[in-house]
Amino acid sequence: MTRMDPANPCKDTRQTLPDETRDAAISRLYDVALAPDRYEALLDLWEDAVRPLRGQADLDAPRLLEDPLIAGHFERASAFLDRVETVGSASELRDILRPFGRMSAFLLDASLTVCAGNAAALTVSGLKEGATLSDLRVMPEDIDAISKAARNVLQSPQQDAVVLRVRSVEKNHYVILRLQLCKLADGTPLVLAASNDIYFSEDSQEILQRAFNLTNAEAGVLLGLVKCGSVSDIAEKRGRSVDTIRAQIKAIMSKTEAHSQVELVRLALSVVDMAGMTLENMPGPRQVSRGYATLEPSVFHSLRTPDGRQLDYLRLGDQTGRPILFLPLDYGLVRWPASAEAEARRLGLRIIVPVRAGFGASDPLPRSTDYDDTATTDCLQILDAENVDRCPIISLGGDSFYAMQLALRSPETITGLICCAGTLPMTRREQYERMEKWHRFIIAGAKYTPHLLPFMVKAGFLLARRIGKQGFVHAVYGKCPADVETFESPEVFEAMVTGSEVALSETHSAHDAFVRMLTGRFLEDWSADVEALRGQLPVIFLNGLQDPQVPPATLDEFRATYDWIEYHVYEDAGQLIFFRHWRDVLDKVQQLLS
Prior knowledge:
InterPro entries: AB_hydrolase_fold, Sig_transdc_resp-reg_C-effctor, Tscrpt_reg_LuxR_C, WH-like_DNA-bd_sf
Protein name: Pimeloyl-ACP methyl ester carboxylesterase
GO biological process, one term: regulation of DNA-templated transcription
GO molecular function, one term: DNA binding
Number of helices: 24
CATH class of the largest domain: Alpha Beta
Radius of gyration: 26 Å
Number of domains: 4
Domain HTH luxR-type: 211-268
């Protein structure tokens, strides 16, 4: 579908998705809002839908899908993702059930025996560990249907989720039961069963009213639907006619942009279950970066910026040695492998690592503040606090952009750049299309659909929390054997898991700052900035041929365009090249220092 410019009927001002594809994408959005581990299914559907539109877009003004309906659903799904509880239970089974809160949820093993249930399952459904499906308080004829569906979920590769409607014995109303396949860390398959049989608190109606901007009466009707009441039952309980209730339901669906009562109930269930538990209200991270095996603790240092913000940074290696500024990528990889930190200390190198605004305990920036400009200013303030007159920079990945901004802003301070897995301005459509799918999904999303990016990033962060950083890294870098192998090195694993605590921990998520970096100048054409550094200072790039963001063809284009940069290319490395070849990096740093 396209929208025409009235002044020029031949010119498309917006491209959107076919109705069928749009509806499928919206459905996947709410699946992810309820279960972030279904993120990759959304990724695949979205990529298939948007790729043809990218091919028709103007790369200089590439905003796609300026569709209020799609944008509204992305915003609402993004708000739902805010309403999650931190994962911190020692029990893996409890962790799976934890996000459901007041919604009755339980886990079935291969014998269809309940191996775990949340408090709501015990209170509302009467289920406890060791119970069987026959103990479920539904009509006998529904037990067989649930049993058959659960076995299909466990055994059929084509059907990993199913929704059933069963009748409650005690309340004599219908209950929606969703069965979904899930796997433990060791691969053991289980069936996660969640129903809309909920323990409702007194504030549930108020929660629905605020979430969807409903009248008090409409919120009451919606709560009745959530409890699986029929239209006639709701009318009788509220003392209204059936026609009045139907009119109110129609108004509710208009306000929520739901296409059906099933979707409407799903939206409401999400809000009720997740209300009050927001990422924004989580306490901040620890004040010491502490490893669990070989990494020594490192204290976060703080300063106050002129605008009153707290700004943190780490000091690795020799605490009084020769300074090097390290820019740790938007994943917040602020720690080095233990051997690398020890070598930096032996060489007398003081590694200064900024914790950007919104990461760790560094205060976030107001929406009106330019993130890129402030991030550059913050780094210079840290160097000033450390009494650094001159130093080189080591950067990871896309932080080559910030390294160059610092060199332009303060040429008297920055003496050279070493960009590990460095990237340069992407000025060709093919450079986005060549990326591996996870990087393309996020980076092309930032380029073409930035207004939809908050949900994409937030869901990705929550997926990482749900499946663990190891599982997430394997998903993102799965087609890059060198990066997977690098990550599995015990020292690298510890450094990346520990360092990325400033980006994602049990108590903190830097998804908002991540989005602001991606939607800044990084994806614009900053070729003039790069050219302005020609002949001004040494610029060294270390790139791996297995980089999922900068594959060989893109790297060749960079080398042809900016042939004055010194390139070192490694066949056995990808985007995590610094963690694999840090010794080479330190050799080149010493050359710059000498």
